[in-house]
UniProtKB/TrEMBL annotation:
GO BP terms, alphabetized: proteolysis
InterPro entries, per the entry: DUF922
Gene source species: Mycoplana dimorpha
Signal peptide as annotated in the record: 1-21
The keyword Signal appears for this protein: yes
Keyword Heme appears in the UniProt entry: no
Keywords carried by this UniProt record: Coiled coil, Hydrolase, Protease, Signal
Organism lineage string: Bacteria, Pseudomonadati, Pseudomonadota, Alphaproteobacteria, Hyphomicrobiales
Coiled coil segments of this chain: 126-176
Protein name: Putative secreted Zn-dependent protease
Pfam families xref list: DUF922
One Gene Ontology molecular-function label: peptidase activity
């Protein structure tokens, strides 16, 4: 039974805050890495300015953000001829995420109050970007299962066309989920930060 393996088209996404693991058998291959950019500033206003000037830049808008997540999907699908039909032999979707976070170079010398503000903000940025990465991983797992469950086609080219169609739809659904998450987070940003700051302040007493 001859088989043909074809790569999925790689997709690179850059997601932002708006306001490698070795897999077990059968698991989608995922990897996660972190990178950092340095910010200065001795006051809250200066920190805000530094984040706006030095944060990752979004290609679609040109604006900068305090954190971002680069996401790349890839993988391959193999096809097997059995009789007069073509089947998916195996499908493997990969996703790699690189989370970009700020690093404040004056954190150790900061006042207690400003340090509290920074720690709260940084934790929220990191949580937000980690969630972007998890959304991508979930979509990769779903896509892999959908590809493996494809019904056979009369030809492998026909099946490849189905794979391309499903992959494009999965990427579109992924993008919408990421955008929806950003909208919700942006709408709740001020309320969330106030709640987190109050909680940390009470714990520090």
């Amino acid at each position: 039974m001859p088989s043909i393996a074809k790569p999925l088209r790689p997709i690179l996404l850059l997601l932002s805050l708006t306001a490698a693991a070795i897999p077990a058998a059968g698991e989608t291959i995922t990897s996660k890495s972190f990178s950092y950019f340095s910010v200065g500033g001795r006051t809250a206003a200066e920190l805000d300015d530094e984040l706006n000037r030095r944060g990752p830049q979004m290609k679609n808008s040109g604006s900068r953000h305090p954190g971002a997540t680069k996401i790349r999907f890839g993988g391959s699908v193999s096809y097997v001829r059995r009789g007069d039909k073509c089947y998916v032999g195996d499908a493997r979707v990969t996703v790699s995420t690189n989370i970009i976070l700020p690093r404040w170079k004056y954190r150790r010398s900061a006042s207690k109050s400003l340090g509290l503000v920074w720690d709260t903000l940084y934790s929220d940025i990191k949580r937000h970007e980690e969630r972007h990465a998890e959304i991508a991983r979930q979509h990769a797992r779903d896509l892999e299962q959908e590809l493996k469950a494809l019904r056979p086609g009369r030809t492998c080219d026909q099946l490849q066309a189905q794979v391309d169609k499903i992959t494009a739809a999965a990427v579109e659904a992924h993008d919408k989920d990421q955008a929806r998450f950003d909208r919700v987070e942006a709408a709740n940003f001020n309320e969330r930060m106030l709640r987190l700051l109050t909680y940390r302040l009470e714990r520090s007493k």
